[in-house]
Design a protein that fits this description.
Length: 138
């Protein structure tokens, strides 16, 4: 019985630690060579966590279909600490990252990819999640 309960508990704790990309919004138009704000939000949770890092990349989806961030991060735009803070009471804790879109990226659909690593729970155990957001490059 113990072995069945543990995976369920770990899964529910993991789900409670999810993050989302707040900015840019889906379909947002970005210009080659310009700065883009990527907002990573950590959803509120009762389970404690210690942030390790976040990685932000961009990949072109013009000639091929976009692949999940868990498979390809693309060109790395940022890698380093993640320290989400409360800014507005109506928003979960988040951190904004200003990254520069490469000049060489093809015009058309592209994907902002984010990977977040944390230690979760009292144990703690390692947690890695990936997410993405489709934007339009001009």
């Amino acid at each position: 019985m113990k072995s069945i309960i543990s995976p369920v508990v770990l899964a529910s704790v993991s789900l409670a630690q999810n993050s989302i990309i707040g900015l840019p919004t889906t379909g947002y138009t970005v210009t080659k060579g310009s700065n883009v704000t990527v907002q990573v939000q950590r959803l509120n949770s009762l389970t404690g966590s210690t942030e390790i890092a976040v990685v932000i990349g961009v990949s072109s989806c013009v000639s091929i279909a976009c692949r999940p961030a868990g498979e390809v991060m693309g060109t790395i735009l940022y890698q380093g600490p993640f320290d989400p803070q409360h800014h507005e009471s109506s928003q979960p804790p988040y951190q904004n990252f200003t990254v520069t879109l490469p000049n060489l990226i093809a015009a058309g659909n592209a994907q902002i990819n984010v990977a977040r690593a944390a230690l979760v729970g009292a144990g703690p155990f390692p947690y890695l999640e990936t997410m993405n957001r489709t934007v339009v490059v001009v």
